[in-house]
Amino acid sequence: MQAGLVVAALLLLLIPLHRLTQREQRPPEPPVVSSASKQVHLAVRTTALPCRFQITFLGKTLWVEDASTPELAKDFDINFPKEGIDLVVDVTWETKALAALEITVSLPDGNAMNKTLWGQGTANEVLTFREDE
Amino acid sequence: MGLQSGCKVFCVCFLLFSTAKLQAQIKVASFSTVLSEIAEKVGGKNVTVTSLIKPGQDPHEYQLTPGDLSAASASDLVLLSGKGMEATYLVNLRDALLKRVQVLAVGDQIPSLTKGADEGKEPGKEETEDPHWWNSISETEKATVVVRDAFVHLDGQHIADYQASATAYLAALRELDSWVKRKVAELPRNQRTLVTSHDAFQYFAKDYGFQIDSIEGLTTDQEPSVGHVTAIIAEIKKQGVKAIFLENTLNPKVSVEITRESGARIGGSLYADGLGPGDGETYAGMFQHNVTTIVDALK
What we know:
The structure holds 2 protein chains of 2 kinds. By secondary structure, chain A is of the alpha+beta class. Chain A has a domain at 37-129: Lipoxygenase-1. Helix content of chain A is 15%, strand content 52%. In chain B, helix 2 packs across helix 5 and helix 8 (226-239) packs across helix 9. Chain B is α/β, with parallel strands linked by helices. Chains A and B meet through strand 5 and strand 8 of A and helix 6 and helix 8 of B.
């Protein structure tokens, strides 16, 4: 009878002991990364025609165009964090004279950023667009 | 021996001496694996380079040996990384070298990034220069110009050679920089948090938009405190950092422990302190390895 009580007491002790020694299994906290998919308006303006350009975003082709008019625009749903985005731009002009391609990125809140590439025949650059620049 | 024979001997001796003078090479002793490559590329056949720090060797832990001192003494030019990298043996080295040997601390000729006590990692310490300038391609371009000018100053007979070789090497560096920018652009800007073993990538981070969290300080002999490791684990969880990186010259024990606690994985091993065996045998190979490892692991 006494032995039974001791065993029962030991078994009862196991529960708090297990709780105390078990590694805490909290669900992982969600990462606080600033990411939000926004509809971004991209406008492209070239000083020379014909012109072929390719815009790559995060390693994937976003927009490729054989431009026959100097101004083109398109909307894209892309993640635009507060740290900004990088667009890889490759452009080819038929003319070997100095030409330029201007890219304007407009956000739904009306904020617009623009960058220009210059080149003779070709230009390749990584352009960074940030709201605070 | 007649007058004619005497003239012949004199002419032969003069020709031999002149030829030897024309073929004389600048002897360079380098205390940096990256500077060894720059010296070889820019100097070409007019320069012989002795690398006193070998690929894969930790320059923070380097101790000056009598053999290396002899090699440095026999050279015309000693190349140092500078920015405090050689602080533990620089005085001894300068004292022991003959006056004719020129000592050039290349890093001291280019702008520095600093790490201060205000950043909370080195309390009580003054601002420290970051010596890891080679992890920026634009800083390496500046170093190339410094080395080229040193060769031009030492050997006016081969100015055109040094200028042509330096121009070719600088073009290769610019091409490498374009490749790096395109590769880094594959990674969202809000995922560019780089957690490394020691603080060697500030110059890289500045050039390509990364935020740095290092486990150790600017040198590899600073043990991280428990508080600092706990803070890094919290930051990794908060930012959702997918991977942290080891270094080819360091013990990975603390990094591995951090991955256990944070849930991040080991993204690979980086060349932090210069060239090393494997991909990092050349500067371009080292940089491509580091960038590919970082981008692919953090994507």
